[in-house]
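User: For my dataset I need records formatted as: sequence, then structure tokens, nothing else. Please produce one.
Assistant:
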Amino acid sequence: MAIWVGSQGPRSLALTGQLADGWAAPIPSYLPYERWAQSNELLDRAARGAGRDPADIRRIAQLVGVIDPAAATPGPLAQSGSDPVRADVGGWVELLTRLATEQPFTTFVLWPQRTDERQIRLFAEEVAPRVRERAGRFAPDIST
């Protein structure tokens, strides 16, 4: 059995790093994107302080948004704030690849704003394979 925590404050993040098997970064309306890297660093420090390897803590990035093939790929995507991600497939691939390679996220969950089969298909058939390919050795899990 694994213990996962969706912590966001410094004390709960430290406890997560010391004891939990995984951290589910809360959706950006609870923990804005710009705090994800700092939160991951806090988890790592707490894990090392408890004699744990930080890599043993699985990390899930939960992203709310829409995959819109007609959308222009925005510039800096999901760098700050809590707005839903609205981008084409390429924008989603860029974002998830960045999160897999620049931060220790190993799993991604899409919370589609428009829950329809097309969003799930785009994510599973177009975004996920390209992220896995680009992330290389990181090989993240990607789900909806």
